[in-house]
Amino acid sequence: MIYLDNAATSPVFPHILEKLEHWNREFFANPNSVHPEGQKSRREIDRVRRFLSQVVSSGEENIIFVSGATEANNTVIKGLAERHKNKKRILISPIEHKSVLVPVKELVKKGLSVEFLKVDSEGVVDIDHLKERIDKDVLFVGVMHVNNETGVVQDVKVIGEICRSKGVPFFSDIVQSFGRLEVPYGYIDFFTTSGHKINAPKATGFMKISQEYPLHPLITGGGQEFGIRAGTENTPGIIAFGEAVKTWDENRQAFIDRFRELEKLFIGKLKEVIPDIKVVSEGKKVPYITTVLFPDVKGHDMVIALGRRGIAVSSGSACSSGSPMPSHVLTACGFSEDDALSGVRFSFGVDTDAAWLETAVEEIGEIYRKLSSFPF
Ligand code: PMP
């Protein structure tokens, strides 16, 4: 299989897969137990927390292990709202992931108001609009670092500076940049990550919180994770997550350089084969995520046809694949419904190579000719 859907999820690094059984056997004990076996698990969690706190230059008390970014995004959004009930306005970008949009919508039903920051045709947030709309009554500003559909990158440093100058917490979903890009961590009060996007097992990850803006926990119980996320910690998953972060950290430049070469090759060849394609957010995006609009073709049909030929890609966001709705990200960028429905996302991972992409382009060309010549 040619797997070009790494923004949906990525395969676990082989060197991590090999050790998972060992970690499960060695560190099975509950890290909250006082006996030596339990404390052995606790020491591993502490070690990974310390490592992450160094990676993101923040105190260990700010690193909260979670089951992934959906939980983390819900925790930040609902946790801030529950704790700071006098703040009734939320400012977010319209291209956020559903795991941000839906919790915000729930808050709106409870009486809070949301304003969507303007984005340009590439999906870049209008900083002047943020400056106009922000004031100290805002509960939080939420802008993701890298969009999961288009790969567009936001200037989270500038956004963070504006928020700080107004005393408003800045929350950023950094799922699609964490590990792969240099992130200006110091400018983001709350950020959320997900292990399965960086070759760690599913249901791992952490969020970074801020002591300046206390949160009400979403999940309560045994008081684990500084009272912010109750539940027995996933020790083997946390260890595996730490290893994946370390691998990305050590190889970031090499991986990124490769993604750049692959992006150039892929887009270049695709434009030779189908000159009318549109690459969304071209020049403003990360090299490992590319959404292409294929004129007069339904992205969903292209995804199915490619799948039959052994090539895995997505249309719209993976989380809503199969739904006939045009992507909210593409419509927010101003694309018509038809254009938005013609999008296909190709996302690269550490195992993507040039030969895969050359095969993919050939297959895409053939499928495109068939699909676009349909009389209706
Ligand atoms: N945010 C973004 C930008 C994502 O791409 C995803 C995964 N589709 C999530 C949040 C949700 O992450 P998880 O699968 O860890 O819940």
Class by helix and strand content? alpha/beta
Helix segment count?
A: 11
Query: What's the average pLDDT?
Result: 96
The separation of the N and C termini measures 31 Å
Which of globular, elongated, flat, extended, rod-shaped describes the shape? globular
Summarize the structure.
The chain is α/β, with parallel strands linked by helices.
Features:
7-stranded mixed β-sheet, Aspartate Aminotransferase, domain 1, binds 4'-deoxy-4'-aminopyridoxal-5'-phosphate, 41% helix, 12 strands, alpha/beta, 11 helices, 376 residues, Aspartate Aminotransferase, domain 2
Structural commentary:
This protein is of the alpha/beta class. The protein has 2 domains: 2-8 and 252-372, Aspartate Aminotransferase, domain 1, CATH 3.90.1150.10; 14-246, Aspartate Aminotransferase, domain 2. It is 41% helix and 11% strand. A 7-stranded mixed sheet has the order 2-8-7-6-5-3-4, with helices on both faces. It has a 3-stranded antiparallel sheet with strand order 9-10-12. Helix 2 (36-55) runs parallel beside helix 7, helix 3 (69-83) packs parallel to helix 4 and helix 8 packs across helix 11. Bound molecules: 4'-deoxy-4'-aminopyridoxal-5'-phosphate (PMP). Residues 68-70, 97, 99, 144, 148, 173, 175-176, 194, 205, 318-319 line the site of 4'-deoxy-4'-aminopyridoxal-5'-phosphate (PMP). 4'-deoxy-4'-aminopyridoxal-5'-phosphate binds at residues 68-70, 97, 99, 144, 148, 173, 175-176, 194, 205, 318-319.
